[in-house]
Write a structure and sequence with these properties.
five-stranded mixed β-sheet; about 40% helix; three-stranded parallel β-sheet; alpha/beta; about 350 residues
Length: about 350
Amino acid sequence: MKKSVFLGALTVAGLAAGAAAAGTLDDVKARGKLNCGVTTGLVGFAAPDANGNWDGFDVGVCRAVAAAVLGDPAAVEFVPTTGKTRFTALASGEIDMLARNTTWTFSRDVDLKFEFTGINYYDGQGFMVPKELGVSSAKELDGATVCIQTGTTTELNLADFFRSNNISYEPVPIETNAEAQQQYLAGACDVYTTDASGLAATRATFEAPADHVVLPEIISKEPLGPLVRHGDHEWGDVVRWTLNALIAAEELGVTSANIAELGAGTNNPEINRLLGTEGTLGEMLGLDAGWAKAALMAGGNYGELFEGNIGSSTPIGLSRGLNAQWTDGGLLYAPPFR
């Protein structure tokens, strides 16, 4: 088993090295379309509507990158991936970037040869159970059946948590959130565990959300963010600084409502550099001067994307918490645009 895992890692790393040899930025420009890997469907983060149009918080990052590079937020091909297929899709070049509730870890960065371009959601793993189960703590789950997505950090964290608390569980392997939801509601497992944000998104789709509770324990750190292949630093810079632009714009007070006005020039030099009326930041990235302005016009700044898709006013109802700006006690912090 160890040998197969090792060989699998080598395969992904080899694919990544080959795909990264080509310039992804040039490929995307020539193709006229960004191929963006997303989840198979998680409401609020990435999910298609009845007409096949994708929307969500992670989708917004894809559209911002497409707008920055191509000037068109609609120039995106969304490629659904599972926990098992996402890394192969990126390594092989099937997708240009992955924006799919993926945790930044040492082995994914170093061994699988991917480059995380930032964190767009600070999360942690939790547990959801039916209220009728009468459980108030994850430490009371001895002997429980647990729906768990394979090929994820969630799977590893679960084993660590139960082992450290000297309790047992029976895993019910699933591959997609839709499958987990179906199995959980059908009673095939007592518990569903994934990132707390994913639990909130899943619970919001239930006919009776109040019949299910998310337990208080958060058992891991799950810094989620977009990633690209190692070795293609020019493309990595584009994705990284597009995400930074969304974060910095919120801190600077640049919104979809005032960007047209501010884009004409302000007395704040950093806003001017961000929006391309001063300096040569776009040229440094291989993009035009209005790249960040186009990215922001695609769906608004970070706060607008958050509140519009997963925030407290949505059925998912997530508070900003750690995902607030550093000026508001959170962890969001973009390097200076200069």
